[in-house]
Amino acid sequence: MEKHNLENVNMYNDIIKNNEQSMQQCFNNFKNKINIMSMNRISPKLLEHVMVTTIYNKTIPIHHIATIIVQNINTLKVTPFDKKTIKNIEKAILTANLDVHTKIINLSIYITMPIITETRKIKLLQRIKTETELFRICIRTIRRKTNNKIKLYLKNKEISENVEKKFQHIIQKHTAHYITCISNYLKQKEKDILQY
Q1: Helix, strand, or coil here: 76?
Q2: Which one of 31, 49, 103, 189 counts the least CB within 10 Å of its CB?
Q3: What is the pTM of this model?
Q4: Cβ contact 181:27 at 8 Å
Q5: CATH architecture of 44-112
Q6: In whole angstroms, what is the distance from residue 196 CA to residue 192 CA?
């Protein structure tokens, strides 16, 4: 009997811990994405998550196959280690939807960030709001998956209805917390962007 209770406690802790970790990871990914999108000056960090499909059909982070240096306040210079990958790198940058312009000169790609105008601020805010909604959906999807797991335990009579309700209550608290974190982060970024 004690072993069964211990297993239930471990299962309970694992479910709660995994749910919280997944939501925290989703929130961290959200912050990284929004920080990159809302940069007001160029930085190699802008390309941090750009993945390039090479001529050998391997997907590799851009910084593994090229040097990235700041050329000036609004320009990055990307120089591939292998000149054959230059078109693939440019394509990866353009498809990453970073709101930048690219130009190939002498086997390097020059990436320029447009000057922040009022029109660009509005477009940027729209893109950030769209991205924010995707991350809210991510949090709710994690909740749904965890709740489905709990329902399966209930169906298999591994937990009682009372325990299921406790689980759902805690998971809903996690969900509300991370949705609020996302909303607060969005508000702060909107303020920052409007002050550029």
Answers
A1: strand
A2: 103
A3: 0.75
A4: yes
A5: 2-Layer Sandwich (3.30)
A6: 7
Residue owning tokens 């590799």: 60
The residue to which tokens 């329902």 are assigned: 151
The CATH number given to 2-37+117-194 is 1.10.132.20
**How many whole angstroms separate alpha carbon 60 and alpha carbon 45?**
16
For 102-154, write each residue's pLDDT tens digit.
999 999 999 998 887 888 888 889 999 999 999 999 999 999 999 999 999 89
- For 95, half-sphere exposure in the C-beta direction (CA atoms, 13 angstrom radius) is 10
Q: Which residues, other chains included, contact 157 with Cβ-Cβ below 8 Å and sequence gap of 6+?
A: none
Cα 80 from Cα 101, distance rounded (Å): 18
107-130 burial: b if 16+ Cβ within 10 Å, else e? ebbbbebeeeeeeebeebbeebee
Structure-block tokens of residue 52? 């390039």
